[in-house]
């Protein structure tokens, strides 16, 4: 009897030890798979590329001991993709709180001279041509052809390099021009983004521009870990969420004004230097870490860092931004049947039907306010 009890006890102890060992191994492995470098020197897209969870899963799957954690990680990844690229966000039930028009929004498009033909012409032929008054193009080189298409081309004097400093320089000018404009909302997009301005207005009308609003979509699945320089010799770790510039984001005027000591004039560049991260991360740092305002995540913003095939064709107009480009070494664009073939229109932006314009009574003259016919339930 006693010997039986002793054996059971021994077996239980061995079992418990093995379980502990297994849990420790899995925990360690999961950490290794998703850990980001504490400090990243270059672009946020590189930050994304380095610890790709998918790549990590592939690497892990060949090693026997890592299979279990890889499996768990894969499940998390799949769920995240569904959440991110899925259609309507939960914003839905929120009623409009402010009646805003297209000219209350300042849309800043960041570009560089080498992309004027290959990227800007496409945007000028599609969504910008319908929203010229509220769209401002921030670039780094003179271009008659672009200037003939719109008056709102801003030459930033920033370098044309794809360096952290050059990108922050452009963001600094975008911020200052927005403040000067007196508009209610600042929205930033890249030159590979499509903006559904009607849907954007509908979304922003759900918030008050005098409140602290920062809205967009993160490209990372956890807050970025950075170090902030607080003096010549002192650094301290900071963690914060940021909305990726490649999906576009918006900031209310109320919040933008509070950002001024860290963002206006030359301050933005200094702030970016303090954390040594790119422009969109610096925006997140000022808002979340310095001002303590939380990013509002919204699934209607899309960058090419997510699988754009997952946006249903019937929901295209209900998305705020779209994109095209590369994702995991493959061409990435929305699926959209239309008048143009994929060869003629690889981004699919030319194939998106023009949004319906509101009908006014005959003889109506007056400010054109955009009436929204997007289904409220779709947000
Ligand atoms: N860009 C820039 N200067 C450069 C290269 C890129 O201002 O030298 C801008 C580009 O016009 C775009 C954004 O930075 O608006 C992101 O560039 P891209 O889409 O080429 O790179 P991604 O980071 O999305 O891979
Ligand atoms: Mn891009």
Explain how this protein is built:
- The protein has a domain at 98-351: Alpha-Beta Complex (Spore Coat Polysaccharide Biosynthesis Protein SpsA, Chain A).
- It contains eleven helices and 13 strands.
- The chain has helices at residues 2-34, 44-49, 53-61, 67-85, 116-125, 144-149, 164-181, 197-204, 253-263, 267-275, 279-290, and strands at 105-110, 135-139, 153-155, 185-190, 193-195, 214-216, 224-229, 235-240, 249-252, 296-297, 321-323, 325-327, 330-332.
- The chain has a seven-stranded mixed sheet.
- β1 (105-110), α5 and β2 (135-139) form a beta-alpha-beta unit.
- Residues 20-87 and 366-379 have low confidence and may be disordered.
- Residues 43, 45, 110-112, 115, 160-162, 167, 170, 190-192, 246, 325 line the site of uridine-5'-diphosphate.
Summarize the structure.
This protein has about 375 residues and is of the alpha/beta class. It has eleven helices and 13 strands.
Bound molecules: uridine-5'-diphosphate, manganese (II) ion
**Computed structural class:** alpha/beta
- Specify the overall morphology: globular
Largest sheet: 7 strands, mixed
Low-confidence stretches: 20-87, 366-379
Number of DSSP E strands: 13
Give a topology summary.
Elements: H1 2-34, H2 44-49, H3 53-61, H4 67-85, E1 105-110, H5 116-125, E2 135-139, H6 144-149, E3 153-155, H7 164-181, E4 185-190, E5 193-195, H8 197-204, E6 214-216, E7 224-229, E8 235-240, E9 249-252, H9 253-263, H10 267-275, H11 279-290, E10 296-297, E11 321-323, E12 325-327, E13 330-332
Parallel strand pairs: 1-2, 1-4, 2-3, 6-10
Antiparallel strand pairs: 4-9, 5-11, 6-9, 7-8, 12-13
Bound molecules: uridine-5'-diphosphate (UDP) and manganese (II) ion.
Residues 190, 192, 246, 304, 325 line the site of manganese (II) ion.
